[in-house]
Design brief:
The complex is a heterodimer of chains A (about 120) and B (about 525). With about 120 residues, chain A is mainly α. Chain A has helices at about 1-20, 25-45, 70-100. Chain B has a domain at about 270-485. The chains are: A mainly alpha (about 120), B mainly alpha (about 525). Chains A and B meet through helix 2 and helix 3 of A and helix 6, helix 7 and helix 10 of B.
């Protein structure tokens, strides 16, 4: 399972970077979103893919009775997904406004601020 | 009580932003709320500062989840001093904005956004957890994205697009790094990481992790060769926004580097910190050379941010020497340089905004004659510019002195030579701005179609000019005071360096003693 996910992550990173290298700013956003997904999966895999009981402590006990799955990576990924959702939404609006201001989606034409 | 002091620098900006959004109908009300919030933030930061100075490192376990399982807020001397600096800059920039930011931006939640930005910065300084640091980075980034793009001018949007892309890419690297760190160490708490990684068997993996985080924080701090987003975007928004960005945002990256590379990744110093030192040299040189090629007020200043970041990183890199006295002085110097740079650099951006308001341009070729029409402004510029270049007795001189002394004691002569040479080139750039914008006669604009009304002395009495000048005067006085009353600041810097270089106090302030025993015992 880890190997499969590792390959998926690699593909996601590759696709994301490829899209970011394109000249269209819309593809840039898609690339950024793909990179975000890849990073989330890295956390998920790095936390360990184990089958285990839900991490619940029964009433009266101090620790869960058996080996449990680690809930933290999922909490981290959830937070990261929410954040990347907001960021991608903002980037989409930014791209639309930029397209309106520049009149083109070619990133090569956006050199007014280059140094 | 200490828990309240630690969380107030986050709650106050949050509450201010929330109330400010509710008051969206009235610009006057928004301004009042923004100002009151920032002043209260200064008071809270002073309280926290005094508390930590007197009683040592403070920590707060959010919702009583004991570290390393919960989120921890930690205030040590380094972080609370930076929180205080953030709060002071917040007041300065908000007062300056009253006189300079246009109606449309103010109506579109300019002040609430500024407070969210302050909250993100404070959160990044106070958190004691790697993932929480990521969250605060994002809070800071999102608000800075909006502040940068607010107004929707073409240059702003183009700059914002580059800024957003590169910062998001760095966030992805950060997130990946967090995942791997968690996979390796099983924890993300700074103190716990420091405990566990120092005893970790495969130090090669630890060094690899440190490099992932080095790249992430390097992008935020704008070090060589990861700085390209900075000069592409910092000169596009209004001067007030540029000033707070220039003062605080890159410093958050530098802070994160200092925190991580003193507390957690101090195992393979000869590799990691040598790299930092080399990068510091390149950062200084490329920044200052980039500035020499520019002819726009704020672009020159933007490149100088990069070269100044090099000095701060140099202090961190000098840890490689292993000579305790030199290392202590180097870290203290880096800290002093951060504080000095926040003051001097922000002030130069604020002054560029005044020049723009008087003459309607940031281009040096179209500026001129400001000394003849505004001698007071010129004097304030000179103070800040000389402080930046390191002319005694201003603040920058002592910052450079500490770093150079530390470099000599560490026998790192190459980096010392680079630092001194770059200081000279900084003076060259500042002289260029002085000669072009202030000294040379105002360009004859009679053939220029934009010369409708002749600017000049009348412009000084423009509405809002007093509000713009007040923070500039305050910051210039601060730059002088940091130099003239150097000794207390120096003593503080040395105390801070001692605290930073001995991570035990930090670990013991965060983790319960039984837990530390358990981890240390488990290692043996």
């Amino acid at each position: 399972m880890e190997v499969l996910l590792a390959i998926v992550i690699g593909i996601l990173f590759a696709c994301g970077l490829y899209m970011m290298m394109r000249r269209s700013i819309v593809k840039l956003v898609i690339g950024l979103a793909l990179l975000g997904h890849a990073a989330n999966l890295v956390i998920f895999v790095a936390g360990g893919l184990r089958r285990g009981a839900p991490p619940l402590v029964p009433t009266g006990a101090d620790a869960p009775p058996e080996l449990v799955a680690d809930p933290l990576p999922q909490a981290l990924v959830l937070t990261a997904i929410v954040i990347s959702f907001g960021v991608v939404a903002f980037t989409l609006v930014l791209v639309k406004r930029t397209w309106q201001a520049v009149g083109n989606d070619d990133i090569d034409l956006m050199r007014a601020t280059d140094t | 009580m200490s828990s309240l002091a630690l969380i107030l620098p986050l709650l106050i900006p949050l509450a201010t932003a929330g109330v400010g959004i509710l008051a969206w109908r009235s610009r006057r009300l928004q301004r009042a709320i923004g100002l009151i919030g920032s002043v209260v933030l200064v008071i809270a930061s002073v309280w926290l500062f005094v508390l930590v100075r007197e009683e040592g490192i403070q920590s707060l376990q959010i919702a009583n989840w004991q570290a390393p399982f919960g989120i921890t807020l930690v205030g040590d001397l380094l972080s609370v001093a930076l929180v205080l600096a953030t709060a002071v800059m917040g007041v300065c920039v908000i007062v300056y904005s009253f006189g300079s930011v246009d109606r449309a931006r103010e109506s579109f939640f300019y002040y609430p956004l500024m407070h969210v930005l302050l909250m993100g910065i404070n959160g990044a300084f106070l958190t004691g957890d790697l993932f929480n640091l990521y969250v605060w980075f994002e809070v800071m980034l999102i608000s800075s994205f909006v502040l940068l793009a607010l107004g929707g001018e073409r240059a702003q949007l183009e700059g914002a697009l580059k800024y957003v892309t590169l910062n998001l890419a760095s966030s992805v690297i950060f997130l990946t790094g967090i995942g791997v760190v968690y996979g390796v160490a099983g924890t993300l708490n700074f103190a716990d990481l420091a405990l566990k990684l120092s005893a970790f068997e495969e130090q090669g993996i630890v060094t690899t992790l440190s490099m992932i985080l080095f790249i992430t924080f390097g992008v935020k701090a704008a070090i060589f060769p990861l700085f390209f987003w900075l000069p592409a975007s910092y000169h596009t928004p209004p001067a007030a926004v540029s000033a707070i960005f220039a003062g605080m945002l890159t410093k958050v990256g530098v802070y994160a580097l200092i925190r991580v590379f003193t507390l957690i990744f101090n195992q393979d110093i000869s590799y990691t910190h040598t790299l930092i030192l080399v990068v510091a040299g390149f950062t200084m040189v490329t920044g200052v050379l980039g500035a020499a090629a520019q002819h726009e007020f704020r672009r020159i200043l933007s490149f100088h941010i990069i070269s100044q970041i090099g000095y701060m990183i140099m202090g961190l890199g000098l840890m490689v020497s292993g000579n305790p006295a030199a290392v202590r002085l180097a870290i203290a110097g880096a800290f002093f340089y951060i504080i000095h740079n926040i003051v001097a650099k922000s002030n130069l951006f604020l002054i560029s905004g005044v020049a723009n308001k008087l003459r309607g341009s940031y281009e040096l070729s179209r500026l001129g004659g400001l000394y003849a029409s505004n001698p007071a402004l010129s004097l304030l510029f000179l103070i800040s510019a000389f402080a930046l270049a390191g002319v005694p007795p201003l603040s920058g001189f002592f910052g450079k002195l500490m770093l150079v002394r530390a470099g000599l004691e560490a026998e790192a002569y190459v980096i010392v030579a680079v630092a001194l040479g770059v200081g000279l080139l900084t003076l060259f750039s500042m002289t260029k701005i002085w000669a072009e914008a202030f000294w040379k006669p105002a360009p004859d604009e009679s053939d220029d179609e934009s010369a409708g009304e002749s600017p000049g002395k009348a412009a000084v009495r423009q509405p809002g000019m007093a509000l713009m000048m007040a923070p500039i005067i305050f910051l210039a006085v601060l730059a002088v005071a940091l130099g003239v009353f150097f000794e207390p600041v120096y003593n503080f810097s040395i105390d801070m360096a001692d605290q930073i270089l001995d991570p035990r106090a930090y670990i013991e302030a965060v983790l319960p003693p039984e837990y530390i025993e358990q981890v240390r015992g488990g290692v043996k």
